[in-house]
Structures are given as C-alpha cells and as structure tokens.
Amino acid sequence: MNALTQNLSFQISTVNIVRRKDQSHLTNRNSVTSLQLPPSSSSSAANLLRRPLIYIHTHIRAHSDQQQEEPSSSMAAVDDRIAAIAESIRIIPDFPKPGIMFQDITTLLLDPKAFKDTIDLFVERYKDKNISVVAGVEARGFIFGPPIALAIGAKFVPMRKPNKLPGEVISEEYTLEYGTDKIEMHVGAVQAGERALVIDDLIATGGTLCAAMNLLERVGVDVVECACVIELAELKGRERLRGKPLFVLVSST
Amino acid sequence: MSALTDDDSRIPTIKSKIRVVPDFPKPGIMFQDITTLLLDPKAFKDTIDLFVERYTGKNISVVAGIEARGFIFGPPIALAIGAKFIPLRKPRKLPGDVISEKYVLEYGTDCLEMHVGAVEPDERALVVDDLIATGGTLCAAMNLLERAGAEVVECACVIEIPDLKGRDRLNGKPLYVLVESH
Predict the structure, then answer these.
(1) Nearest-CB residue to B48 (from A138, A143, A150)
(2) CB-CB contact of A58 with A225 (8 Å)
(3) Fewest CB within a 10 Å sphere: which of A99, A110, B39, B116?
(4) What is the pTM of this model?
(5) Is A140 a catalytic residue?
(6) What number is the average pLDDT over the span A64-93?
(7) Comparing A48-62, A69-83, A138-152, A169-183, which segment has the lowest mean pLDDT?
(8) All domains of chain B, ordered by start, with CATH?
(9) What is the third-level CATH fold of A117-247?
C-alpha cells in the first residue's frame, strides 16, 4: 500500500456488482457478466453499439471495513458511473486482425456524461496527490490525458511514435508480438523528482506502458501510477509494470 | 479573424509558450510546436478556456478533432461545453464502419476517416486542430461532417499560418484562431 491508496476512500478488494437500471446482477469475482443493452435509445452511442452483448467484468474497489452487503451510497454512485462507462465501450471483432476483439472507446466519447464520468473518476483519484505530470501515450492517451491534467493542474506530456516530436527526444524501444517499436518523449519535458501518471485508453500486454514508464524513470521522474480505462486482464499486462500500480475502470476478459 | 482575441491578456502568454523548431520535419519548415504550451498548466487551461468561452451556449453538440494533436485540444473543449468528441483519423485506425475523405498534399494525397453513425444529421459541429496551414486537412474534416449531414459551425485552431492562406480553403466557413504565425 502506498501513500496514494492510503488516502483513498476505497481500497483494493473486489466487489463485483453490476447494476443496470432495473436489474441487478451479482457475480462472483471469477465469472463474466454479460449485459443486455437497453432497447433503442436515440443516442449515437446506443445506435453504434453492437447488440446484444458487451462482456465485462468490473472491478469495484470497496472499503475494507465494509462487509460485502449494502454498498455505501458513494460506492453505489461510483458503481453506476462505471457500469455506464463499461456499457458505452463497443467491441469490434476481428480488428485489426482476425481473432482480436477490439475495445473501441470512441462510443464512450459520443456520450458526454459517460466521458465526463470517466475523467472525473481519474481526477477524483489523483487530485491533491502532488502529481505534476500526466503523460499520455499516442494517440488515444491524448484523449484522456489532457482533461485529467487540466483538472489536476498538471502538465501534459505526449509520448509519441518515432519522428513525430520535433526537437530533441529520448527514445525507448519495446517488443511487440513480432519485432519492436519505439516511443519518444521530449528532452526537458519533465524534471527529476516530479511525480507522474501514465495514461492510455487500454492496457493489453503492457509493453507500451512499460516503455512509457521507462522513459520517465530514466530522467528521474517518480511514476506514481499507470491509469487506463480498460484492462485486458488475460494478457497480464499488469505484471509487466515492474511492480508499479495500475488503476483501471473496466477489466475485460 | 482572430481580431476578437487580440485584446485578451491571455493570448500573449499562450503565444510565448509555443516553440518554433526550424527545419522540422524537413529543411525550410519552421515547425510550430505546441507541446511546450502543454507544459504550462495555466497557459494550457487558458487556451481551452478561450475556446470554451466562445462556444458555450451555442448549441454545439459535436467537437471533431483531427488526429493527433486535435485529440489534445478537442476533448477538453467537448467536455466543457457538453458535446460529444469525434476523432477524425488516418486510414485504418478506426475500427468498424467508416467514411473516408481524400485530400491533396504537396505531393500525393492522404485520407481522413470518421465513424459511420458518430454524427447525426443537423447536429452543430466544431472542427478542432492545433494548427491550420494549407487548410487541406481541415477542409477534408469539414467535408466528412457535412457528408454525414452535420452543420459545421466553425473551425478552431490554436495557430494559423496566414501566408499559407488555409482560411481560403474552407469554403467560406469561419475560422477562429488564437495565434497567427508569420
């Protein structure tokens, strides 16, 4: 437990409650909950979501003092926001290649409330924690990182593919399934001793996040936590973060 | 014109935070680097506030941002005015059904894509990018939105390079910028 989690009203255990309007589904922690989408809504997001199902398995952090009975009202409020966020994420099969179930956050961005709630959940966790740097990984990390940075008063540092950032950069190579890739950060963007978050929309194998962390640590920055909207738990990316904590809103199996 | 913002005291600071990098991405180009602006939380916030002040209460339901630096400025504006954010991307980045718009580069062509169904007809939209140069990308972005039936209210950029006359390439659509770079 680090200073960050001590100050949180929620600590890490798992209470899996997915509540959808008039329905409640209680799941044990190892099962997958399938959510039926509501009948047609006029929002673009609903129209784009593939029916019938999005499979999610949400981790909700519950205070360790509470029994696993009635969630507190604040937990229930976080609960509802996360359920709505999870439902707004669209799954596209066989993209970018056959066999991959792509987690598409663009439908979340089409729902202003869900997008705002996503940002709020991160901001609630990180404000007043003396974090001065939010680093976002190109390109979808550019969507979530800046609103968080603005709300907590931190600078935003883009981490980019090679040859995109002008001027002097430092690079970190990382391995892909086949071959390697590289991520870059500007020299001088951060100072030694600053406290930083790394943001991306999703963690899969953890390779990109790990490279991003390395870039920051190489120049003496303290990476407090990595934060993503979605985790693909089966790919065990969490274990590739060399012990750094990872915070996600939705864990997908 | 950016005349409306000339007097705003926040503009000179914003302009001073933009770094010019010579000969990037190729010799002769003076690259306008907004990353240094993002390193100053107050200047970044002021940048967003200037757009939000302009667009709040104008019944705008869509903010479209052009990959990738439009993704940095678009979402905070969208969140503040209660609009949805639509990423406009290079080919094959968006999963699922997309519509594409080709546009001309100095040598050759490029393509911009938007999700089918992201925009509904008659929605009022902004197009956001960090900078307008020749206007080719912004024009393609506008075309995508209009093909889907949206009304593009205005294009908004942090920086304009007036000598490149991108403003003239917007089919008469208004352009709002904070900083001109000569």
Answers:
(1) A150
(2) no
(3) A99
(4) 0.85
(5) yes
(6) 75
(7) A48-62
(8) 3-180 (3.40.50.2020)
(9) Rossmann fold (3.40.50)
